[in-house]
Amino acid sequence: MTGGPIEVPWNVLSDYRCFGCSPRNEHGLRLRFERAEDGIACRLRFDRSFESYPGMVHGGVITTVCDEIMGKLLVLRTGVIVLTTTLRTRFVSSLAVGQDYRCVAGTHVRAGDEGPYRAWAEVHGADGTLAVTAAGQYQPVTAEQARERITMTDAEAQLVAGALALASSEY
């Protein structure tokens, strides 16, 4: 990793329960992101509760990780909410339960760019071996469009808007 931890903007909500990144969701992945190269990264280690075949991490869980990290990177870069429109995952090899991995995401998108946005993610083993690649396309949505889809009070929407603006100014 090349940088410190990243606070996701949604953490300003006291009841934020994202399956991917909320530390408050006891059934979720609880991903923690850090700055990396020209993007962000997270460390992964799955126990048997995320298993598919015996000893193998479920591919849907890995796809979720890739979607989560690409979406978070775009939100941090642009300061706007994005929704996944397409997602393609390629498994070079399976991931083993109890092993260490690193997922990294990148994009060429910058604040002010118009969408749809594209990003990529890769999962590497502890030895650096490529295990998974993913590519996604994301549609930015306005605050009004987000309010139609996301359940938040006006006060919560204002908190998130402030956190998004701060995040994009720092990233």
Domains, number: 1
**CATH homology superfamily name:** Hotdog Thioesterase
CATH architecture: Roll
What is the C-level CATH assignment?
Answer: Alpha Beta
What is the third-level CATH name, the topology? Thiol Ester Dehydrase, Chain A
Rounded Rg = 16 Å
Q: How large is the share of residues in beta strands? A: 25-35%
Overall outline = globular
Order of helices and strands: EEEHEEEEHH
Helix % is: 25-40%
How many beta strands in the DSSP annotation? 7
* Residue windows where pLDDT falls under 50 for at least 5 positions: none
What characterizes the major β-sheet?
A: 7 strands, antiparallel
Description:
- The protein is of the alpha+beta class and 171 residues long.
- It has one domain (5-170): Hotdog Thioesterase (Thiol Ester Dehydrase, Chain A).
- The chain is built from 3 helices and 7 strands; from the N terminus they run E-E-E-H-E-E-E-E-H-H.
- Helix 1 (59-78) crosses helix 3.
- It is globular and about 45 Å long.
- The model has no long low-confidence stretch (mean pLDDT 92).
